[in-house]
Amino acid sequence: MLTGRRFRVEFTGEQAEYAERIGAACRAVWNTGLEQRREYRRRGAWMNYQPQARELAEAKTEHAWLKDVPGHCLQQTLMDLDRACREHGTWRVRWRSGRRWSPSFRFPEGSKMVVDKLNGRHARIKLPKLGWVKFRASRDLAGEVIRSVTLTRDGRHWYLSVLVDDGRRTPETHQVAGEAVGVDRGVAVAVATSRGELIDRPFSTEGERRRVTVLQRRLSRCAQRSRNRDKARAQLAAIGTRERRRRADFCAQTAHQLATANAVVVIEDLKTKHMTKSAKGTLEQPGRNVAAKSGLNRAILGKGWHQFALALSSAARYTGTVVVSVPAAYTSQRCSACGHVDPKSRESQAVFRCTACPRPAEHADVNAAKNILAAGLAVIACEDQPRPAGRTRSPKQEPAGTREELLLPPTTAAPAA
Question: How far is 75 from 22, CA to CA, in rounded Å?
Fold first, then answer.
């Protein structure tokens, strides 16, 4: 199956300068192509990839700076622009700013690229016009078919993203058949499971948070387009990069653990993009509780809800785990024991005490995870036997049996009444 490998590049001075020129050319092609598409839309016409690719070939004969960079990178930029306009609309695609956009370009012909192992820590790959590019070989690419290579600058360093086909296939059955777990994502605790596990990790230290506050104040006092402002922005970006990598590492490790130990993982179908929209409103209709909503948005984005869902889907491909998404309505207000729904049952962010049954108090996120698991098992009960992620299932009659019986493996499940 297709997967990605990311390595840190160690450019020479000339290679770093040339990579910057390639990124600038790709940015210019993107902005020019987007402006052309918008101009056509103003006149009620359409522009797509084919005519723009022909015009790019003509422009390369007139402009030496376009001819100096690899042509495939420019063509891939136009392909990415065409896909973005088709998926989001011409007017919603953003410009690529020279100050805010990180240079990035892709080499599509992976079959022509050669990887040479230098030693235990370093390797090199031969790229068009860049020559041999040295990178830190944190893992071996031997036996994997390279499809494409993307170079991206993140802060002060360049990174090599290799799309490979590792030759593996999704297993037909999970190694731990019959195991299922419900997962609730929260703002106080990142992940809570129906088994009572609370999985969390701080992604930034107290010192880093104080440093961010100092740098934000310094940034607000700096003059626009000044060197001091660029320095402050770079320091803020470095702290944000460390936090982002810790969050990605946490999501990947947690998703791997859940997918390895469970044949079925049930999560809520959360629209994170819509949930984290700003509440400022407009001049005619200003928003309410803007500060509280902003804090909630930061907490949701800080826990990486969407990133965890993507990591779980990726890990499920290798284990054969079925990932089921269920509606999130009332999962935090319903008692997992008696099914009574009451907002007052959730006494606080962490305590759930049912107002209808004498059940002892429980962690609110764990109670929600149990409700999520029950909803996921109900979905599976109306379908065929669980299959690996990405495979279709047909609806069938829901079998009789309790939730505990449905959790058992098929060989030990109790007979239907």
Answer: 12
Q: What pTM was computed for the model? A: 0.84
Match domain 180-201+243-407 to its CATH number in 3.30.420, 2.60.40, 3.30.1460, 3.40.50.
3.30.420
Residue 365 annotated in active site: yes
Q: Given its phi and psi angles, is residue 161 left (phi above 0), alpha (psi -120 to 50 degrees) or beta?
A: beta
Q: Catalytic residue, from 82, 144, 184, 243: name it.
A: 184
Establish whether 166 is a catalytic residue: no
Quickly tell me which residue has 């969407």 as its tokens: 306
The two structure tokens encoding residue 309: 């869902």
- What is the per-residue pLDDT across 207-220, written as a single tens digit (0 to 9) for each? 999 999 999 999 99
- The per-residue pLDDT for 155 is 85
268 carries an active-site annotation:
yes
- Please name which of 96, 83, 241 lies closest in space to residue 154, comparing C-alpha atoms: 241
* Helical pair 227-261 and 206-221, crossing angle rounded to 10 deg: 150
Neighbours of 121 (CB within 10 A): 8
